[in-house]
Design brief:
By secondary structure, the chain is an all-alpha fold. It has one domain. Helices cover 67% and strands 0% of the residues. α1 packs antiparallel against α4 and α3 runs antiparallel to α4. The chain is elongated, with a radius of gyration of 23 Å. It starts with 18 loop residues before the first helix and ends with a helix.
Length: 128
């Protein structure tokens, strides 16, 4: 006399768990939050101190690149361009003979911050 267990029907509200899809979505959310938080940190850093966070920003960027399923080339390019402008600003600030005024450099850095924000919006639109 064999005992059989009765299979209970799956409730309609329960979705099928797909590990790969679940992991992909969590990684995507993590990268979006990481990029958003990084952008806030950069935006809140005073212009004269931006170069002091460059190494930390690139450390985070390298970590983001480790998620190979996601293309973050736009983020990488935007950050590289931004820090080139930061370097130019620092150089102009330190050289009194520089033709480029501090005010103009400051304006360019604000524009670079805006481009970083736009890259963030674009990245979110592409992922969604």
């Amino acid at each position: 006399m064999g005992l059989k267990r009765k299979q209970l029907p799956r409730p309609p509200a329960v979705s099928i768990f797909e590990g790969e899809s679940f992991l992909f979505n969590r990684q995507k959310e993590f990268l979006q939050r990481l990029w958003s938080d990084l952008l806030v940190k950069i935006s809140n850093t005073p212009v004269d101190f931006i170069s002091s966070i460059e190494d930390d920003v690139y450390l985070i960027l390298e970590s983001m690149k480790s998620f190979h399923k996601f293309d973050i080339a736009n983020v990488d390019e935007s950050l590289n361009t931004f820090f080139v402008k930061v370097g130019a600003y620092d150089e102009a600030r330190s050289l009194s003979s520089e033709k480029l005024s501090r005010s103009l450099c400051n304006q360019q850095l604000r524009g670079a911050k805006d481009r970083l924000r736009n890259a963030h919006v674009k990245a979110n639109e592409e992922v969604s």
